[in-house]
Amino acid sequence: MKMPADLNDFHATFVPKSTQRKYVIAILNGNPLLVVTSGKAPQLVMSLDQTETLKFYCDQRLCMGQWQGHDCEVWNLIPEASAVEGFLEVELRSFLAQSTEPQFSLASRASQLLDWRMKNKFCGQCGSINQLSSSEHILSCSTCDLHHYPRISPCIIVAVTYGDKILMARHPNWPENRYSTLAGFVEAGESAEQAVHREVFEEVGIEVSNLQYIGSQAWPYPGQLMLGYVAEALTDELKLDNDEIAEAHWFDFYDLPTIVAPPTIMAGKLIQHVVMEGQAKYDKASLAKT
To answer: 230-247: per-residue pLDDT in tens?
Structure first.
């Protein structure tokens, strides 16, 4: 079965197709475990043969869907699996920053499903043990019939521009010279666009206009959906919320900070989008003057 191109060879579903071939994503201590093969880069997606020594350390497995037309499971491994040779544990955030878009989607879904399963063992309404459905990704309480679905929390992330500059900010916990775009959760009752206006005003004290939706991306910390926007500032005068933002500056498209988000994650995609468009516009304007 060939997947539509925009699915990146992955189809998210709970129902296995009982394919002859099967793939596995292994998670250890909340991080991806990669298989190391001589002469090849470490791989996220493993065949069943490659996981033969890992199956003894698997305490939970869930069907993620189909990868390249074949069933794909996520395995949660107990800590003792770290002693198994031939594998490499990689910190999740580091892996996401360096991975391709298909790998990003797989690692995000694997992490989110396990987090949902482990954090919803008991019903939040009556305290009874939840049971996993055999037909959907639902944890159901047999006592009060309450259903618990994998939680997805919508967030906005926005690249703000002013003329030939982009606004970038640093979180108080980040190292010096590391900057990114502004982001925040969508509050109950508001639209994503309202959240963009509110978050930007709350964090840096400016109003924006001309919002443009760029795209979305799963972000497994633990179950966010990042909705990416570009917006234009009405002023360049910043008034920072120092609890949320350590510092924020306007950067020229040709003079960005030393450390910015990579283009594999939504923040990096927005920065790349704005900078490339801005540089093209700037170069065109310069040529027109000559």
So the answer is: 999 999 999 999 888 999
33: its two tokens: 């475990």
- Encode pLDDT of 235-283 as tens digits: 999 999 988 899 999 999 999 998 888 888 999 999 999 999 988 876 6
Q: Where do runs of H (alpha helix) occur along the chain?
A: 92-98, 101-119, 192-204, 266-289
**Please, is 174 exposed, middle or buried when counting C-beta atoms within 10 Å of its C-beta (0-12, 13-18, 19+)?**
middle
∠ Cα 28 228 238 (to 5°)? 110
The string of DSSP codes covering the chain is -PPPGGGTTEEE-SS----SSEEEEEEETTEEEEE--TTS--BSSEETGGGTTTGGGEEEEEEEEEETTEEEEEEEEPGGGGG-TTEEE--HHHHHHHS-HHHHHHHHHHHHHHHHHHHTSB-TTT-PBEEE-SSSS-EEETTT--EEPPP-EEEEEEEEEETTEEEEEE-TTSPTTB-B-EEEEPPTT--HHHHHHHHHHHHH---EEEEEEEEEEEETTTTEEEEEEEEEES-------TTT-SEEEEEETTS--SB---TTSHHHHHHHHHHHHHHHHHHHHHHHH-
Eight-class DSSP state of 5: G
- Whether a cis peptide bond, with omega within 30° of 0, leads into 222 is yes
DSSP-derived 3-state class of residue 15: coil
Identity at 6, one-letter amino acid code: D
Tokens 């900070």 sit on residue:
257
Domains of the chain: 5-119 (3.90.79.10), 153-284 (3.90.79.10)
